[in-house]
Amino acid sequence: MASVTFMGNPLTLEGTLPSVGQKAPAFMVLANDLTQRSLGDYAGKVVVILTVPSLDTPVCDMEVRRFNTEAAALSSNVRILAVSCDLPFAQARWCGAAGVTSVEALSDYKDTDLGNKYGVLIKELRLLSRAVFVIDPAGVITYMQVLEEITQEPDYAAALEAIKKIAC
After folding, report:
1. List 60, 85, 95, 168, catalytic entry
2. Do residues 81 and 106 touch, judged by C-beta distance below 8 A?
3. 3-166, superfamily in CATH?
């Protein structure tokens, strides 16, 4: 099992962390209307998965808003998914209040399927750790960053470069 820190305190990640170059694991999460979403729903697209502890925290708020803004300059073939264990209703409320329309908020609260399959489920908190996964249209992970300290923001420049490199 891998580990991360929260304000310097160690936490344990459960599940299996995939590798760059491998096929992205299939997953099942919930949309804000409680319908199921899977990786297969985005077949043929560049998929960016942002896993965050909670949209309703300062760093997660900044991250998702930043990717929402950056999405305007990306290809229409790119789908950005912000996945947390927040309830779908809370995600919908947050997106509405934040004006987030270019990032799709999805919830892993029910089964923590994505958290386990991507190795980012925090055992002690039952929340997702902060990570960025970029998946090409063939379903292969081309970039990932799992932050060691979950209170820090991801490397936006590196993630955006990885997205633009494969976006059609």
Report:
1. 60
2. yes
3. Glutaredoxin (3.40.30.10)
